[in-house]
C-alpha cells in the first residue's frame, strides 16, 4: 500500500507547495499506516531533482518523462495520475492546491470515484470515520468534512504542515503512461510567466500595495523592500483594476488568496474583500496613514504613518537586521 | 449555439459568517444572497457570446426554492431561461451529477460557471462535470473567444497565464477579466418575470465529502502599534516575537 502525491515542477525545480504535499502525505502515512509515500512527476525534469523529493518524505518518485506532458495539459495529466494511482494500489492521493492541481484533481475525483476535499488545513481525524478540516468562506471559517469513499483525494492548502527536510533521497523510477490523442484535445499555444521572480501564490513573505501608493511609478520602494525580504509583491483590487499592476498580483476575494508567514500591506485600507485573500497569513503588518483604516483590526502589527516616509526606513532597518 | 451557465447562490462578500444549530448550519439571518461573483463573470461573458453568435442561454442552479430570486436576477441580466434543480447542494460530486444530467439532456455546446463558489471554495464542480460528460474542462479561465468551433482561452497559472485552444463542446470555470459584470436594467428586470424558470427534480447521487460541522477561526488579538519613527522596533518584533523573519 502507499499514498500517491501528484507533484508539479517549474523551471527544473519541484514546487515548494508540492514538497509540502509530500510532507503532508508522509505525516498522514505515519498516522494511518498507509505505507510508503510515492510521488508522481510528469514531463521532463532531472532525476537528481526528483530524488531530492525524498527529503520531504517520499520513498519513491514515478517519473513519466513523456515530453508531451511538459505542458500542463489538464486531460493528459489527469489520465497519467489515474494510471499511477492504480499501478501503486494507493487509496489516497495528495496534491497541493494550484491552478493545474485543482483542474486535474476534479477530473480524478470522477475517474477514481474518490471523495475529494479541497483547501485541507490539517491532517484528517481518523478516530471515527474520516474527517477532514478545510478552509471555507474564503478563510472566514472551517468545515469538518466527512469522506465516505474508499478512495480519497486531499488538495492541501499552503502552510497546512511544516515542510519536512530530513528524509533520504527517493528512488526514481521511470513510469510509462498510455495516453490517447483525446487526452491532448486542447493545445497550449503559449505561456506568459514572470520568470525568476518569487511567485505570489507560493511566497512565504508578501509585500502588497494599495491606492495609498498613489501611482505605479512608486512601486519601486515596495519592490526594494520585497527584494530585501525575498518576498513576492501583491496589490489590492483597485490597483489592478486601474492597471497600475498586473492582474496576477491582485490579492483578495476574487484574486489570489495568499497564505504567507508574513504579509505586509502598505496603503491598503483593508476592505473585507481584500482581507478574504490574506486572512490565512500567519502574521500581518499594516502601514497606513489613516489610523481608522479597517485593516488595523486584522493586523498583528501596525504603523500609522505615510508610506513614502515609513517604507524606505523600514527597508533600511530590515537590511540592517537580515 | 446553446450555452449553459451554472450559478451559485451565495452570501454577499461582505457578510458576517456565522453558524447555527450547534454549528451544523450556516446562519442566514440578515445575510443577503447574490450570484457567486465568479459565476457573474461567466454569465456576463455568456450574454456577450449569445448576442454575438445567436442561440440560447440557459442558467442553472442546484438549490431549494429560496434561490429563485438569484435565478431571476440572472434572467434579468440576460439569460433566456432558467433551470432550478430542486435540492440542497450537498457536496461537489452531488452538484456535478445534477449539472451533468441536465446538461446532457439539453445538449449544450458551451458550459460556463465560476472558477469556484465563494462559500465552499472547492473549485471542483466544472472539472467533475467535464469528466462525467467526457468533455474537456478548463479553469481558471480569464479570456474566452469563439471562432467557428475553436475556443481560444487564457487560463491563469501561478505568476502568469497560459493561452490555449480547444474545440467545442467544452466547460470552463471563469474569473475576471473575462467580461465586465452586467447590471440588470429595468427592461431586463421586467422581462425576467415572464421568462421560463423550470423546476426539475434531482437525480440520485451518494455524497462523498459532505461538510458535517463548522467553526470560526480564533479571534484575532489587538494590533500592536509601533511608532513610525521607531521602525527597527517592528523588525525586532517580527524576528523575536512573531518569528517570521
Can you offer a commentary on this structure?
- Chain B: It holds the Pfam family ETF.
- Chain B: Belongs to the ETF beta-subunit/FixA family.
- Chain B: InterPro entries: ETF_a/b_N, ETF_b, ETF_beta_N, Rossmann-like_a/b/a_fold.
- Chain B: It comes from Algoriphagus boseongensis.
- Chain B: Residues 23-209 form the Electron transfer flavoprotein alpha/beta-subunit N-terminal domain.
- The complex is a heterodimer of chains A (322) and B (245).
- With 322 residues, chain A is α/β, with parallel strands linked by helices.
- Chain A folds into two domains: 2-184, Rossmann fold, CATH 3.40.50; 200-321, Rossmann fold (3-Layer(aba) Sandwich).
- Chain A is 27% helix and 27% strand.
- Chain A contains eight helices and 17 strands.
- In chain A, the strands form four sheets. A seven-stranded parallel beta sheet of chain A has the order 7-10-6-1-4-5-11, with helices on both faces.
- In chain A, strand 13, helix 5 and strand 14 form a beta-alpha-beta unit.
- In chain A, helix 3 (74-88) crosses helix 4 and helix 5 packs parallel to helix 8.
- By secondary structure, chain B is an alpha/beta fold.
- Chain B has one domain: Rossmann fold (3-Layer(aba) Sandwich).
- Chain B is 28% helix and 31% strand.
- Chain B has helices spanning 37-53, 68-77, 92-106, 125-133, 186-192, 231-241, and strands at 2-6, 9-11, 19-20, 25-26, 33-35, 56-62, 81-85, 110-114, 137-147, 150-157, 160-167, 170-174, 197-200, 209-215, 224-225.
- A nine-stranded mixed beta sheet of chain B has the order 11-10-9-12-8-1-6-7-13, sandwiched between helices.
- In chain B, helix 2 (68-77) packs across helix 5 (186-192) and helix 3 crosses helix 4.
- The mean pLDDT of chain B is 95.
- Classes of the chains: A alpha/beta (322), B alpha/beta (245).
- Chains A and B meet through helix 3, helix 4, strand 7, strand 8 and strand 9 of A and helix 3, helix 4, strand 9, strand 10 and strand 11 of B.
- Strand 12 of chain A pairs antiparallel with strand 11 (160-167) of chain B, so a sheet runs across the interface.
